[in-house]
Request: fold
Amino acid sequence: EAQLVESGGGLVQPGRSLRLSCEASGFRFQDYGMHWVRQAPGKGLEWVSGINWNSGNIGYAESVKGRFIISRDNAKNSLYLQMNSVTAEDTALYHCAKENHRGWFDPWGQGTLVTVSS
Amino acid sequence: EIVLTQSPAAVSLSPGERASLSCRASQNIASHLAWYQQKSGQAPRLLIYDTSNRAPGIPDRFSGSGSGTDFTLTINSLEPEDFAVYYCQQRSNWGSFGQGTKVEIK
Reply:
């Protein structure tokens, strides 16, 4: 059974950086695209970034483009999100998600909470 | 940018009733639409993908339909565990979500 566990969240000051990690198990990580999706407190889902199996195709939401960097290490079964120049609007629960055979998000991790505040 | 608009924002129904949730895309996305269920305090779960295909383990009371710009998630005979928030998602370009529909117990 595929499992995803995020880590790296916490309290960070505006303008600083944070790196999130997502550790995958139970499936052949190197074969699947992966994504980050966030959810601000009490709000809906917002797709943040995605990366294909070999890092050859990467995309970002306009709200994070130029500030966030997605990457993966297939040898370590891990996905990352480098968050730079964070603002209060980046406060959210950050989920990683695996693509299924058709590119949809299944399953999702439970998320790691990022709070941006001075 | 493709915008997904879900309606209604919330609906109150009783167990055993049918729920019909709508998702409208700002441009043609063919059949590139999925539905997710999110219960309070839990991660979202894939229900339906490619408009009408149920994900593994999803009961057949959940069904999806539509194409182009108008899509519907139907839940026949609501069970107590179905009261949750439902999101549609498009993957015609990367991925964006609708704002969600909350299905509440009446």
Observations:
- The first strand of chain B starts at residue 4 and ends at 7.
- The mean pLDDT of chain B is 96.
- Chain B touches chain A at residues 1, 34, 36, 38, 42-46, 49-50, 53, 55, 87, 89, 91, 94-100 (CB under 8 Å).
- Chain B has no helices and eleven strands.
